[in-house]
TrEMBL record:
Lineage: Bacteria, Bacillati, Actinomycetota, Actinomycetes, Streptosporangiales
Region forming the signal peptide: 1-32
Keywords: Signal
Protein name: Secreted protein
Domain of life: Bacteria
Amino acid sequence: MRSKKLWKAGTVGLATAASALTLGAVTTPAHAAAPSPTVHAQGAWHTFKNGHQSHKPTTSWHGSYYTRPNGVRIIQVNARCWGNDSTLKVRLRYSNSRVGIRTAKSGHWACDGRYRTVRIHNAGGELYWPDFHVDHKHTIEYWMQYYK
C-alpha cells in the first residue's frame, strides 16, 4: 500500500513538471524577449537640484526658484514644520511671460511634524517656487519635486 502512494505522488510530480516545461517552451519564443518599441519607461519622482531645504525659525519665507524641465507636467512641494501652536500655509507659485506671477495651488495644515503635499498636474509655467507663512516662528523644511 505504501509503494502505491509513493508511485502516485511521483507521477503527479512528473506530470506537472513535464507540462510546465512544455508550456514554457511554447509561450516564450526567442523573438518575444525583445521589448516592443511602443513600451514606455515608467516615470518617477525627482527632487529639484537644491530642492530640499530648511529655514531657521521664521514666520514668512519663500524657497528657491526652480526652472521646470521640458516635458514635466506634475510638480509638487512637500513641507512640514514643528510646534502644535501654528498653522503652516504653503503656496506653490509660478511665473511665465504671458500671465506674470500667479499662485498655482495652496494648502494649509497644522505644524505637527508630518509633511504634507501641494501638487499641480498641469504645470506650464517657466519658473516655480514655494511661499511659506506660519502663525508663530517655527522651523520649516521642504522639498520640491517633479514627475518625469
